[in-house]
Amino acid sequence: MTGDKELLLSALKGLKGTGGTYYNQAVKQTIDAFDMNSSNTKIAIFMSDGEPSDTITTHTLNLISSSGVIFHTVGYGSKFNSLRTLSDAGTGTVYTATNVDELIEAYEDIYLFSGISTVDNDGDGLYDVFEKNGMTLPNGKVIFTDPFKNDTDGDGLVDGLEVLLKKFDYSRHSYVFELKTDPFASDYSNSGICDYDRVNGTNIYGRSYYVSSLNGDIIDIPVGTEKTMFHFGNTFCVLAALLVGGPWGGLAGAVGMTISDLTTSYVTSAPKTFVLKLCIGLIVGLVAHKGFKLSKEHSAKYVTMATIVSSAAGMVFNIFADPIVGYFYKTYILGVPQDLSKALAKIGALTTSVNAVIAVIFASVIYLILRPVLKKSGMLREM
Fold first, then answer.
1. Considering its fold, how many domains does the chain have in total?
2. Prediction pTM value
3. Which of 22, 64, 98, 111 is most buried by a 10 A CB count?
4. Within a domain: 15
């Protein structure tokens, strides 16, 4: 054993092939190279491009198993039955490669997993050491799953299918994982379709979704493997800003729609909802009351025009802001893969536009009906 690269290169240059592949002697020399008095983890990588010229003896297998050396084998080619026998004796893993790229990948895998415990009590494909100590996502967030429950969220998908080992970050010397679905929520994308059905292509179009909440009536309609949502929540957000001004109206709309998210399957969207709905109210209130002075006395034609333009201003903002903010929120806060975040943004863009038209029409009509009544009763305050 040596850490001297020059000495190692010199030794390699002196190697010569003799045309045979003799496993028994090679295994013995490999085991003999280890310091058996050392408490360090002992790992051997045994590579061959074919079956042995000699027959693997029981003595060789006992030598591996009694040594305590983790014996990984790498087969370059198509024949590796004997290599599997060696790996099994040394509680190692057999890797195969048919080209240089696969060979590099095999050695990277050995580097990734050598020296860590491969105990997987729940058989979900994620080693307990990962589930207990945490798995780092590309955005730096660390998540934990239950090492004794193979399906943490009970959606029918084992955790190992929802969280995948992506790469080893050499700069941080840590493993990086990727979320395919959410291991803590049975409905990863709030689609009304459980993750198992989505991944396996079942029951995607089998239901309609109706939810009654503080957000008003919601109709969720499946679109592909996701869902889109038509609702009247923005109507009341805009209406509140027209009636009581941007700050209070925006706050009322933001709080109401956030509570709606928190009490339905949209709980992960609640922070984003609060910010966006508050902004809608502030913009509508600013245009209506600071720009058009809507609460003052004006002609019916002027009031109608100002109401529609003010409502539209807030909704135009939302048409652009909702998918953009949603993409960054899902990707960098929730740790959703970028390609999935883009898909969700595209799906949401259509309904955001439809919801905007709905909000402008209904909020304007309701305000124009309420305005004279409130003005007559003295309840329409000037701003």
1. 3
2. 0.46
3. 64
4. no
